[in-house]
Specification:
Order of helices and strands: HHHHHHHHHHHHHHHHHHHHH
Radius of gyration: 30 Å
GO cellular component, one term: membrane
Main location: membrane
Largest sheet: none
InterPro entries: MB_O-acyltransferase (IPR051085), MBOAT_fam (IPR004299)
Number of strands: 0
Membrane topology: Multi-pass membrane protein
Number of helices: 21
Subcellular location: Membrane
Oligomer: single chain
Strand content: under 5%
Length: 405
C-alpha cells in the first residue's frame, strides 16, 4: 500500500487527493451498507454504480479542483499536477472500485446463503483439479495457500499450451473464490489493490478477489524458466516495435503531418503514397491498416510489460492482446483478443448480472414472437383483403345479356 501510494503520488502529486477522496468515500459507504443488514446490503450494487458513474462524470468537469474544496491552499496544490493527470487514469481506477464493491456484495450474498456471517469461503476447485480428481479419487483438494506446492520441478517441462490452460484454470478459480469479510473491510488491502503500481497505469484489470488471493498465495505457474522466456519475448517485441516505428512511421505522419522539410527521396515517396494518397484508394487503405497495426503493437508492448512486472511480484494478471491482429475474422473475436481483461470485466460485472446468455435468449424469443405476431397480422390483413376482393369480383361478374350472375 505504501509503495503504491508513493508511486501514484509521484504521478499525480497533490491532485492524488481527488481520486483518493472518491475511493475513500466509496469504501466507507459500501462498508456501512454491509453492516446494516440484508436489506441495506441489497443496495450495494446500485450505490456502487451510482457513485462510479457520478465520479466519472465529475472527473471530466474542469470545475473539479482542489481550489474549490480547500480555497487558497487548494489553489496552490493545483499547481502541482504531476507527470500524469489524475482524470486520465481515473476510469481504470473506477473499474477496480466497482470490482471491490461488487465482489464484496457477492460474498455477502453467498455467506447469507450458508448462514455463516464470519465464515471464509474458499475458492472452488479449478478445472485442472477436477480433471485430476476424476482420475484419482484419493486426491484431496487443498486450499489456495497450498494449491501449487511441490509443482515447481515440473513447471519447466510443460509445453506453452499446457501452461496457458493452467493459467486459465488458475485465474478462474481465484476470480470466483470469495474472500473473508476481514479482507473486504481492510482499507489497506483496498488501497493496495487500487494503486498497485504494475497495473495502475494501463492494466491489465485484475478483480479484487484474484488480487487478494495473490497477496495470500502468489502465483506459481509462470516462474523460473517460464518467466525468463516471457521477459525475453517482451524484449524481442520491444526491439521489433522500435524497428516498426523506424521504417513504417505512420504514427509520426499522423501526429506531425506531412514531411515538408525532408528532402530524402525515400521519405517523400512514402509520404506521397500514404499521406497525399497519390496511389489512389489502395494507398489510403494501406495507410489505415498500418496505423491500426501500430496501435496493436504499441498496446502489446505496454500491456505485456505491465503483466511481466506483476508476474515478478506473484500476480498472474490476464493476458491482454492474446492474439495477432490479422487472424481475426469478426469484430467479436477482435474485441475478445484485444482488451481481454476488460472484456472479462464486462462479462463478470455487467453481462452476467443482466442475465447473461439467458437474457439474450429471452430477448431473442421476444423479438421472434413480435416478428411472428407481425407476420400473423400481415397474413390476416392479406386474407381479409383477398376475401373482400373476391366478393367484389363475384358481385361484378354478371351476364351482359340478361344481367344475372
Amino acid at each position: 500500500m505504501v509503495l503504491g501510494l508513493a508511486f501514484v503520488g509521484f504521478l499525480h502529486e497533490f491532485t492524488l487527493l481527488l481520486p483518493l477522496a472518491c475511493a475513500t468515500l466509496n469504501f466507507f459507504l459500501i462498508g456501512l451498507l454491509a453492516r446494516l443488514g440484508r436489506s441495506a446490503q441489497a443496495l450495494i450494487p446500485f450505490v456502487a454504480w451510482t457513485l462510479a458513474l457520478g465520479s466519472l462524470a465529475a472527473s471530466g468537469s474542469p470545475e473539479v479542483k482542489l481550489a474549490r474544496l480547500l480555497g487558497g491552499v487548494g489553489q496552490w496544490m493545483d499547481g502541482f499536477k504531476g507527470e500524469v493527470g489524475w482524470n486520465t487514469l481515473f476510469p481504470l481506477l473506477v473499474l477496480k472500485i466497482l470490482s471491490w464493491g461488487l465482489d464484496f456484495h457477492r460474498s455477502l450474498h453467498a455467506v447469507s446463503k450458508v448462514d455463516a456471517p464470519e465464515a471464509k469461503i474458499e475458492p472452488g476447485p479449478t478445472l485442472r483439479e477436477e480433471r485430476d480428481s476424476s482420475n484419482d479419487n484419493n486426491t484431496s483438494r487443498c486450499p489456495v495457500s497450498t494449491l501449487f506446492e511441490g509443482r515447481d520441478s515440473s513447471l519447466n517441462k510443460r509445453s506453452p499450451v499446457s501452461i496457458l490452460r493452467e493459467e486459465e484454470d488458475e485465474e478462474r478459480g481465484r476470480v470466483e473464490g470469495h474472500r473473508s469479510r476481514q479482507e473486504y473491510q481492510s482499507f489497506g488491502l483496498y488501497l493496495a489493490y487500487l494503486f498497485y503500481p504494475p497495473l495502475y497505469i494501463t492494466g491489465p484489470i485484475v478483480t479484487f478477489n484474484a488480487f487478494a488471493s495473490y497477496m495470500e498465495a502468489p502465483q506459481q505457474i509462470v516462474r523460473g524458466r517460464s518467466l525468463m522466456i516471457y521477459w525475453a519475448r517482451l524484449f524481442f517485441n520491444m526491439c521489433l516495435f522500435v524497428m516498426f516505428g523506424h521504417y513504417l512511421y505512420v504514427s509520426a505522419l499522423v501526429q506531425n503531418g506531412p514531411l515538408k522539410l525532408q528532402q530524402e527521396p525515400g521519405l517523400i515517396a512514402f509520404e506521397a503514397a500514404f499521406m497525399r494518397h497519390e496511389g489512389g484508394g489502395e494507398g489510403l487503405i494501406w495507410f489505415s491498416f498500418w496505423s491500426l497495426e501500430f496501435l496493436w503493437f504499441k498496446f502489446l508492448v505496454i500491456w505485456r510489460f505491465s503483466r511481466a512486472w506483476a508476474l515478478l511480484d506473484g500476480v498472474l494478471a490476464p493476458e491482454d492482446m492474446a492474439r495477432c491482429m490479422c487472424n481475426n475474422y469478426s469484430v467479436r473475436g477482435f474485441w475478445r483478443g484485444w482488451h481481454r481483461s476488460f472484456n472479462r470485466w464486462n462479462v463478470r460485472y455487467i453481462f452476467v448480472p443482466l442475465g447473461g446468455s439467458k437474457g439474450v435468449s429471452v430477448l431473442q424469443q421476444q423479438r421472434q414472437q413480435r416478428h411472428n405476431n407481425n407476420n400473423n397480422n400481415n397474413n390476416h390483413n392479406n386474407n381479409s383483403h383477398n376475401n373482400k376482393h373476391n366478393r367484389n369480383n363475384h358481385r361484378n361478374s354478371r351476364c351482359l345479356c340478361c344481367g344475372t350472375s
